[in-house]
Amino acid sequence: MALRFDLVSGPSEAVEAASYEAIFARRGLRCCKFSAARDCAEHTASSKASLPGSQQEPSSVVHRTNVASGENAGIKINLMIDSISNVSVDVIVNSSNEELQLDSGAVSKSILNAACLEIQDECNQKYPRGISTSEIAITKGYCLKCKNVFHLALPEWDENSSDSILANLTQIMTICLEEAERMGAKSLAFPILGAEMKYPIEKLPRTMYEAVKNYSDQKSSQIKDVYFVVLPEEDTEIVKKFREYLLKTEKFHSKDTASSKASLPGSQQEPSSVVHRTNVASGENAGIKINLMIDSISNVSVDVIVNSSNEELQLDSGAVSKSILNAACLEIQDECNQKYPRGISTSEIAITKGYCLKCKNVFHLALRSWDKNSSDSILANLTQIMTICLEEAERMGAKSLAFPILGAEMKYPIEKLPRTMYEAVKNYSDQKSSQIKDVCFVVLPEEDTEIVKKFREYLLKTEKFHSKDTASPNPSLPGPQQKAAPMTPRTNVASGENAGIEINLMTDSISNASVDVIINSTNKILQLNDGSISKFILNAAGPQIQDECSQKYPQGISTSEIAITKGYNLECKNVFHLALPPWDENSSDLILANLTQIITTCLENAERMGAKSLAFPIIGSGVLKYPIEKLPRTMYEAVKSYSNLNSSQIKVVNFVVFPPDKEIAKITKYGCHADDNSSDQFSYSFSHSYCHTDITKHRCEGTRQ
């Protein structure tokens, strides 16, 4: 069996690069170095940043080996230095004890602390008698970055029974692999089994490696990645022994590790549907941006989430509070009970940790009941409590907050809430130079659409805004050797020479576009061979692009997120992959708002990465059945709004129609300019060409009246 072995150098390994290169030379192998800025082209196919985590950048993946021959075959084994509780995989394996008391042992403790106490409760309920050393206990992953945890208990080391003990270790690893396979898992993380129980360090690398190799040899497995995870505080001798063993097994080449995820306001977030944004202070990049978002607030990734609760801080009451309790784990209720046993008044906030939420802290508040006779004082109290939240967030160093629509559950008049909440943030921003950059007003999807309407109407009257939306896969099949076709319509979305972003309508396969970023409309599980646009991009980019999606986003993406990969053989630096919801006439406004949001997310992330040009397919025009007549205006306005709100380094956005889609091209050509409500006058020119051997160009000029 020919094995492939990759050396993945993390931050701590740079010092040893020269010695590895010398080892390569002695073996007659070439050492190809990779950096984030530039990859070695001839090794692109086999050298991929690895870590199957949706948002993870490993502390140090120091080795990788493939245990089956053939390109992309077998299971890749990765040696990682990190806490196993940080690893993002389908299954984390926990080395515990027969009683399944998870607070014993460094590995088990770290898993218990990261997963929340429910994982111990599940062990107690499902396995009241514990497990034997030949069994595993299976629980959910809770707050860990995995779907499941497999708990096992190893026998104590006995030199006189060393062979049977190591055979048991092999057997229990095989049970884990078989069970993971049965459950559809593609990646597992093992701690260094036995290291805490004084198993001889020199015996562990071979035993663990051979267990995976033998499993891989015996069957065609859907499992792609196995991680051997060494705690940073564990003896460096463990790392040394594993490294030495893996160096002896197969060829290797050096790699970089990195992963990227798009984010909107907050540290790592891509919101479900940000339908409006306005900046509450004048001046470029000044003030606090207010975003109107349609989502559960428990999904939002910000520094601080604000919870509208009750004076007793019983978090299981009210839709907003319930969603926060369910997502955060029960410890958030325990902290409320311990720190605020008497509850809070309507002029106070309670502060807890975020636990399993995507935030650092939760601010809990209790509003007064609505009384029409005291409306002014009640709304003044709402303003005051929002100001307290902003001040406390500022004091704690937060840069982003998410508020529910305060009072919506308590029958506060909907028509009064937009102005009250907006003015509270605006007044705070006007009075001081704030480090807070983003405030999200979050509407639950099931809440009355009248709320969204009222907020949208108010924000439209106040400041410039930009809508945001998600998009869907657009089927189109490009010819294998087509050259990029010239543009048809072109318009600049800001007046003035060299101002704004040029929008071009291009007739071609998007895989032929030569830009910094190509947008791919695919599906939530990132299977790029599904959908004609995605297939086309996969075929042109090469299989490495699918590998990177699978490794970096093993759990896929939501319809409000983008996955970012390299461009590989495409004429672009990066590909942004998105997944749109299917069309539903009853939710058309939300779906189109989501489309706007996802386009804006793409633009923001491209901007952050230094890109100057992007190519979008006509998003939603294919199997998702978005009405073609609605797409030109929606896509155009998304770019225009972004350009109006930002001084952008992005210069060109191409909307790319595959040549057979003549109706789409026709509607998009004229639809981009059919804005009867706008008083702006745009001059634009159109040129159209077809992909023949002799490219014929047609150019016409006109001014919209």
Automatic annotation (TrEMBL):
Location(s) in or outside the cell: Nucleus
GO molecular function, one term: transcription corepressor activity
GO cellular-component term (any): nucleus
Chain segments carrying region Disordered: 467-493
Domain Macro: 64-247, 277-460, 490-654
A biological process term (GO) from this entry: negative regulation of gene expression
Keywords, alphabetical: Glycosyltransferase, NAD, Nucleus, Transferase
PROSITE patterns, alphabetized: MACRO
Name by which UniProt lists this protein: Macro domain-containing protein
PANTHER family: PARP/ZINC FINGER CCCH TYPE DOMAIN CONTAINING PROTEIN, POLY [ADP-RIBOSE] POLYMERASE
Domain of life: Eukaryota
Keyword Glycosyltransferase: yes
